[in-house]
Amino acid sequence: MSGTGNIVARLPFPTAARNELADAQLRANLRRATHTIRDKRQRVVAEVSDWEALRVAGAAIKDDVLARLPELLEQFEAAATAAGATVHWARDSAEACAVVTELVRATGSTEVVKVKSMATQEIGLNEALARAGIAAVETDLAELIVQLADDTPSHILVPAIHYNRGQIRDIFARRMPGVDLAALTDEPAALAEAARRHLRAKFLSAKVAISGANFAVAETGTLAVVESEGNGRMCLTLPETLISVVGIEKIVPTFRDLEVFLQLLPRSSTGERMNPYTSLWTGVTPGDGPRTVHIVLVDNGRTDTLADSVGRQALRCIRCSACLNVCPVYERVGGHAYGSVYPGPIGAILSPQLTGAGANRTLPYASTLCGACFDACPVRINIPEVLVHLRQSGVDAERRRPSAERTAMRAMSWVMRDRRRYAAALRAARRGSAPLRLAAGRRGVVRRLPWPLSAWTASRDAPLPPQRTFREWWAARERDNTP
Amino acid sequence: MSARDEILGRIRAARPEGRVAVPREYRTVHAADTDLVGLLVDRLVDYRATVRRCGTDEVAATVAELLAGVPRLAVPPGVPEEWLAAYSGTVVRDGTPRPLTVADLDAPGLAVLTGCAVAVAQTGTLLLDAGPDQGRRLLSLVPDHHLCVVHTGQVVAGVPQALARLADPTRPLTLVSGPSATSDIELNRVEGVHGPRRLDVIVVDR
Prior knowledge:
Helix content of chain A: 40-55%
Number of strands of chain B: 12
CATH topology of the largest domain in chain A: Rossmann fold
Structural class of chain A: alpha/beta
CATH architecture of chain B: 3-Layer(aba) Sandwich
CATH topology of chain B: Rossmann fold
CATH class of chain B: Alpha Beta
Number of helices of chain A: 22
Number of domains of chain B: 1
CATH architecture of the largest domain in chain A: 3-Layer(aba) Sandwich
Low-confidence stretches of chain B: none
Oligomer: heterodimer
Radius of gyration of chain A: 26 Å
Distance between the termini of chain A: 75 Å
Structural class of chain B: alpha/beta
């Protein structure tokens, strides 16, 4: 079953990217933020002498999970249920939203506090709750900024990465109810203080909280949430009811396996040795935390992704966002251009697989295949390999339809199969391109060719044929050297 | 068909064949000569926690020094009386006579004192596992000032050793690495959001 929700791009990537590239402020903000985090990540990863062994172990644990997923999910369900949680299953985003909405309705609450969660973003939970008259309050600082701005997230870890401090101050000043304007400067500490004041009353009075989970331990039925601010702890501890929405690939087999991921994740995501707070809970603990605990396990396209022997490695992803921060494409276009809650290199392989063929078909081309994402990935997802694989599948799916590119390539192949035909074609091309040489400048490249070749230069420069080919140069050299 | 059966059936049809061996060649033991306590202190200071080292007979004096000017102190049921001997403010103990409420803990001028289960030197992390000297999770969450006592015997090198030491992983666990912080504004770390904005750690040599 194909995945649905906020993972379906409305615009083809090239169109969306062109829109985003027009915003110089956005590019400056992104450049500054991604370079800050890149340098921090590099520093803390360099101090771990067994980093590569941890990556290998992390990848293998996740591959093991995919191979044993039905048994592990059943084990998780049994353990969590025995510990007092109620486990629900959802085929797609609509079903997941319906389950959660019904659970919230049953409590009688019309407001819920939320821990930042990619799964709930993916299924469009806030929108679904709003339609049912339930207000979902995002409590992570960056999610709060995005929610107040009536915007959408542009980064997995830092959804408001596209705003700088001055812009955040303006959003708070305009949209945060009861904000103390006199104390509100664009200092990050003052902005954090404003968020604290705004959310404190909500935390202390909320009856229902909604979270995701970074890890779900099959052996014990334990869920883990990794965070920084303490908003997660507030939501996971204080309300009476806790509902956690968890993708089926978040399983790890044993509690011990967390020793790998709790080392890989913080250093890869925020570039810290450890994030300030990690919470782990197993069902209900009398007297400590929520009295009612629900877990909603969501497929939403994950089983489709699992069926692809090359593409399934995308399901190893632990949502650290290291690949976004090192990507030359992401750094320039930002997260919105990808049209999905999963942007950047991982989004380019995850979104099209979750939604299935059709939607998101331009995303696998949103990459230069430079490979920086693979190097940064803590669970060794070979993103370039999957990108090429998805491009190939896309081309295969179109094979029976006529295409100018394929016709051109076929003609090119005929020409290049014969030496004389090839030499003659090069001579013809040189003569034909002579008028362009003036326009090409010193680098010898043309940025825009006339139609129909303009299709080729729409997204790349075209080099002019050389003044003399290698064969001609070689032949001349032989002649000169012959006594 | 139920969603559960349908999803499990789809996974069975889609999953790869065979088992995957997990190589665990990463470090789970560390050289005995490493100064773990020194490393822990360095990491905690890096997170901008306040750190004091003292002997077993100096805990009460150090607690009192760090809580100078703090009128009220919440403690979980199992915090030893001797830690509190020199503190001059009012001590409220969770569960005696009644469990403390969120409103009790949110009162201005209140700090909380806990122990911990284990501490990780390499990452500057304190693990709380709801043991008697740590108590319920909200105790170390709602007050704005958290004071934590760590014995040097509780300090281990890395995350693998720390998780292996936990008595029962299904108890509510909280890993604390410095005061509450955020990296959400231009990806720079700023201390102090919703959790305790001040974290003091007393490392007791023994």
